[in-house]
Amino acid sequence: MALIPNFLNRRSNLLDPFEGFPPLSSHSNFPSETSSFAAAKVDWKETQNAHVFKADVPGLKKEEVKVEIEDGRGLQLSGERSQEQEEKSDTWHRVERSNGRFSRRFRLPENAKVEEVKAAMENGVLTVTVPKEEVMRPDVRPIQISG
Predict the structure, then answer these.
(1) Among 98, 96, 117, 95, which Cα is nearest to 106's?
(2) Biggest CA pair distance of the chain
(3) For residue 71, what is the enclosing H or E element?
(4) Which family does it belong to (predicted)?
C-alpha cells in the first residue's frame, strides 16, 4: 500500500492542463508493434515561452526520425530503427535491443505556434520545442452595482 498520496507524485496527471484533449485519430500508418521501441518514451513540459517534448530514441540518427505537424494542431514524432545486419559467421547469444517503427502523437494546445517548431537531436534524445503565443486576456472593467 502506498503511503504517499497519488496527487503528490510529480508525474501525476491531476493538474495536467492538457488532460482531456481528445486523442488524435487512433489510425496509424504503422502496424502494431510489440517491441518496447514502438512506444518511445516522451516527456512534455511547458515553460513560460514554449512546450518542450523530449523523446528517448537511442541509436537513431536524425535522418531516421520525423517530426510533423498534422491537421494544424497535432504533433507527430516517428521513426524506425533497422535491424542490425547479420553475417553468416555471426552467432547471437542474446538480443534485447528492440528494432522497428515508433509513432507518438500529441494534440497541441491553442497557444502553440506550430509554424515555429524546432527540433534537435543530441545523445539519443530528440528535443522538439514548440513556442507559445502570448494569450491576450480580455480587458477587465469594473461594473457599478446599483442598489
Answers:
(1) 117
(2) 94
(3) none
(4) Belongs to the small heat shock protein (HSP20) family.
Place of cell 517530426: 67
Q: Which residue has the higher pLDDT, 115 or 98?
A: 115
- The residue whose grid cell reads 506550430 is 114
Hey, what amino acid is at 92?
W
The chain-wide mean pLDDT, for the chain, equals 77
Instruction: Say if CB 65 and CB 78 are below 8 A apart.
Output: yes
Range of the domain at 50: 36-82+99-134
Total domains in the chain come to 1
29 within domain boundaries = no
7-38 pLDDT, tens digit each: 444 444 444 444 444 444 334 444 443 344 55
**Sign of the four-CA dihedral 13, 14, 15, 18:** positive
What is the CATH classification number for the domain harbouring 67? Answer: 2.60.40.790
